[in-house]
Each structure stands twice: as C-alpha cells, then as structure tokens.
Amino acid sequence: xxxxxxxxxxxxxxxxxxxxxxxxxxxxxxRVAVEINLEILDRGDFxxxxxxxxxxxxxxxxxxxxxxxxxx
Length: 72
What we know:
Blueprint: E1 2-5, E2 8-11, H1 18-24, E3 32-36, E4 39-41, E5 56-61
Parallel strand pairs: 1-5
Antiparallel strand pairs: 1-2, 3-4, 3-5
C-alpha cells in the first residue's frame, strides 16, 4: 500500500496503524504530532487509526533543548 509521509511516497504493509508506522520510522510516539489528510490526530487514536491507501501523513517531531534563563 502507498501513502505519503511528509511529502514523500512510502510503501507500507496493509493494516498498519499510526503507532506501527512511527515504530517503523523509529520515532518516539510521545514526541511527535501526527496529521492525516489535514486532520490532527489525537495521540490516543494512534493505535486504532489504520492507514489507508493514499493517506497523506505529516509527522512533526518535538525537539527539547534551550539554554534556560540566566539570573545574572
């Protein structure tokens, strides 16, 4: 089955859910936001949302860091 992930065509197995896709991509489920066909998906739905042929998925990763605030 073919889907698009962040604008790139990708072939995935049938009956894959969002969690499975993220695992295949080696992404931490807790550190991403996922949009499917212009709809932001609630993290609680990652296990139940089965991907379909032609779905367009955008995955945004959260990156920690920053220098903090100095009291000087």
